[in-house]
Amino acid sequence: MKKLNLLGFFLLSCFIASAQESTIKSSVRNVETKVDSVLALMTLEEKVGQLVQYNGSWDLTGPASEMNSKEKEENLKNGKVGAMLNVLSVEATAEAQRLVMENSRLKIPLMFGYDVIHGYTTIFPVPLAETASWDLEAMRKSAEIAALESAANGVNWTFSPMIDVSRDARWGRIMEGSGEDTYLTAKVAVAKVEGYQGNDLANSRSIAATAKHFAGYGFGEAGRDYNTVHIGENELHNTILPPFKAAAEAGVATFMNAFNDIDGTPATGHKILQRDILKRDWDWDGFVVSDWGSIPEMIPHGFAKDKMQAAEIALNAGSDMDMEGGAYESSLVELVENEKVSLDYIDDAVKRVLRVKFKLGLFDDPYLYANPALLEQISFEDHKELARDVAKKSIVLLKNEGDLLPLKDEVKNIAVIGPLADDKDTPIGNWRAQGEANSAVSLLEGLKNNAGKNVNITYAKGADLGVGERSFLMPLEINKTDKSGFEEAINTASKADMVIMALGEDAFQTGEGRSQVNIGLAGVQQELLEEIYKVNQNIVLVLINGRPLEITWASENIPAIVEAWQLGSESGNAIADVLLGNYNPSGKLPVSFPRAVGQEPLYYNQKSTGRPSNPEHVTYSGYTDEKKDALYPFGFGLSYTNFEYSDLQLSSEEMNPDGNSQASITLKNTGDVEGKEIVQLYLRDLVASTTRPVIELKGFEAVNLAPGASKTVTFEINEEMLQFYTANRKWESEAGEFEVFIGGNSRDLQKVKFSLKK
Ligand code: BGC
User: Ligand 1 within 6 A of 633 CB?
Assistant: First the structure.
């Protein structure tokens, strides 16, 4: 044993020595040998230590473990901890790393994780908003910047991207994902992983990413967070898993499992998901971290009787690391000794953790991410510019009656009204990492910064949205009674040529645990809007929110509506870019906006049902008190110009499995200004071995056109795009007829047919 220890120290110090030469280090080829050689040195206790993750600050995102910080420190020194979360700053991470490197026997460096969801210091649009840009390169870039700012602060692992498809606006975490569509979410997943991880994880500017939450978390019943998920195999494979598979193929370093149970099995204890599908079928070699405390949470789930059994179930199911749950550290050694958990499974889990640490370059230099010089090199001004760029691309123009927008030169007096109009905090959104409170450019500031001197801007708040303290863990209290600011707002509005109203949601109305049964304009906002409308109907409603809202009254009465989400640090400037016409809006909704909350979950790619529609009778699948389609459908978004689609053609109406067919359409800019259109391709499999959605997104392309210009946009359709998880329980295509749809949103589409021969 002693010999082995010496050999271990020798090996480790070799790694450290070679490290100083460059930031690009350990080649993948050598990683496996190195992992094996470290594993061979480890005692069972040390192995279990690698599977333990501690929270390191009071920055809680869930109930804390009972352990005090002194005990945690001792365990770090003794090599009983593999990773930490919420330890922030170069100094703090270096200090924790030092405890391990200077005291533990094997000196296996720690990883430091953090929820860097839409930026670290520079805050980008919340993920749902950013997805509305459909600009994968911009999303990759914002992840790259978030990674750089994190790495410069000692953080080398983000718990992002969240790639839970979600179709329920009641769920507060819908803001954290890419919306309702599987294909779009998968594309964003890859862009984000590439952005965070770069080409080489061991580059000191890139960090490890996490695909979360595996799986089904976005489908909580009734939109309630952590709630039970009822999805069958078909839905799981066709809708939920593809973004995770795409992330795994893109080389995402880690996965996080989920709090929910799926059809009777908590995701954390789900062997089929973690061990069979992820690790065996997809041959993915990273590690799975539990969600915060999700291993012991299998006790209240009624799936484990105590921590010991929870640890046994989780490890056997393929959960490799226990985040702040205290179950692995207290139970795994005993479980192995009692043969409830095999040493092979422990070894596999440890190897996965070590592999990621090697790839991150930590064995070469445990302090790689504790480099104060990196922070000095960052140009936060450049990052802000990029944040503004992606923010303006994320804005979706929902309505523009009478071309009220962009603001015309004749408009000299603008009243800016609403609780969110001069709010510098809400645009920072939830999951804001180290984004400073009140640091965003407000809408009012943005307009003042960018409108010409000849425009007179007045402001009245009208009402507060929330009252009292706002924080990550506490519920937000909404102002439902105080209308004392109404009078001033009404007066201000009545004197203006135009009113810009900023309404929506507080940052802490969406995010974890923020499910709502109402998704309209909360508090007194709707009343304020209607009062202002009585004195001035020239209203541009700017929505600042993290989830789809129920805005049926506004859609019928207000001439212009701009969906501006929570856009991050540069929010106000980006909104001003769009309102003033310096940027022609090009965003498209990644999620349906309902007519009424009762439609939720609502999504475009539904199944047909046996009774799709019949306006003459009630005995069809709809509602008697509301239409069944979306108010604003998936993929929808207007521009200051108009686009005309014509001449949809297929290169061939018959396809062989190894062939392809080109679908092309002519897109013309028929308006007066240059504009960008996101051209969308959808497919439908008309008859299949399992029922298929009425349409499914399968491609998109952004096209810029000058006024009067046109372009033929061509999509290739191949056999792979026709595949789905069939009744044979595998991904394959089936011969038969298909429809191809192309257009500017999921509702207004042109259609042609073709068949696949086999
Ligand atoms: C969330 C995760 C997050 C973790 C760590 C949990 O409550 O569900 O998404 O990464 O906390 O903060």
Answer: no
Q: Whose CA is nearest to atom 10 of ligand 1?
A: 159
Task: Look up 291 and say whether it is catalytic.
Answer: yes
Residue type, 387: A
**Are 196 and 629 contacting, i.e. CB atoms less than 8 angstroms apart?**
no
Q: In terms of Cα–Cα distance, which of 642, 638, 635 is closest to 741? A: 635
33 contact partners, CB below 8 Å, separation of at least 6: none
CB proximity list for 345: less than 8 A, separation 6 or greater: 315, 316
Ligand 1 neighbourhood includes 292 CB (under 6 angstroms): yes
**Whether the CB of 287 sits within 6 Å of ligand 1:** no
Residue 214, ligand 1, Cβ within 6 A:
no
Spatial distance between the Cα atoms of 474 and 397, rounded to a whole number of angstroms: 33
345 to 45, 46, 314: CA distances (angstroms)? 14, 15, 11
pLDDT-flagged residues of the chain (< 70): 1-29, 57-67
Q: Is 114 in the pocket of ligand 1 (CB under 6 A)?
A: no
Residue 430, ligand 1, Cβ within 6 A:
no
Distance CA 189, CA 255 (A): 12
Q: In 10 A of CB 310, how many CB atoms? A: 29
Give the Å distances, CA to CA, from 629 to 398, 399, 413, 625. 16, 17, 38, 12
Residues 6 or more apart from 247 whose CB is under 8 A from it? 161, 163, 186, 189, 190, 193, 209, 211, 255
Taking CA atoms only, the protein residue closest to ligand 1 atom 4 is 292
Give percent helix, percent strand, percent coil of the chain, each to the nearest 5: 35, 20, 45
Q: Where are the alpha helices (DSSP H) in 104-162?
A: 127-131, 136-151
Q: Are 558 and 521 in contact (CB under 8 A)?
A: no
pLDDT at 82: 98
- Distance (angstroms) between ligand 1 centre and the Cα of 702 equals 34
Render pLDDT for 283-315 as a digit per residue (tens, 0 to 9): 999 999 999 999 999 999 999 999 999 999 999
CATH 2.60.40.10 matches 643-756:
yes
For 323, phi then psi, to 5°, come to -85, 110
Q: Residue 64's pLDDT is what?
A: 57
Reported CATH class of domain 393-599: alpha beta
Q: Which of 164, 291, 506, 685 is catalytic?
A: 291
CA angle 159, 231, 597 (to 5 degrees): 80
Domain boundaries, the chain: 393-599, 643-756
The answer to whether the pTM exceeds 0.90 is: yes
SS3 (DSSP) at 10: helix
CB 643 within 8 A of CB 742: no
SS3 265: strand
**Ligand 1 mutation target, pool 54, 85, 292, most atoms within 8 A of CB:** 292
Helix ranges restricted to H, 318-453: 327-337, 343-359, 372-377, 380-394, 443-450
Length of the chain counted residue by residue? 758
Looking only at the bridges linking them, the beta strands covering 322-323 and 466-467 are: unpaired
Contact status, residue 738 vs residue 752, Cβ threshold 8 Å: no
Encoded tokens for 409: 């030169």
Taking the C-alpha atoms of residue 522 and residue 365, their distance in angstroms, rounded to an integer, is 51
pLDDT at 347: 98
What is residue 6's predicted lDDT score, i.e. its pLDDT?
A: 36
Give the pLDDT of residue 29.
59
Query: Rg of the chain over CA atoms, in angstroms?
Result: 27
Mutate to test the pocket of ligand 1, among 54, 58, 61 (most ligand atoms within 8 A of CB): 61
Q: Does the CA dihedral 591-431-433-465 come out positive or negative?
A: positive
Q: How far apart are CA 342 and CA 335, in angstroms?
A: 8
Using the atom order of ligand 1, give the atom closest to the CA of residue 258: 8
| Contact indicator for 747, 629 with CB cutoff of 8 Å | yes
Token duo for residue 690 = 């399992």
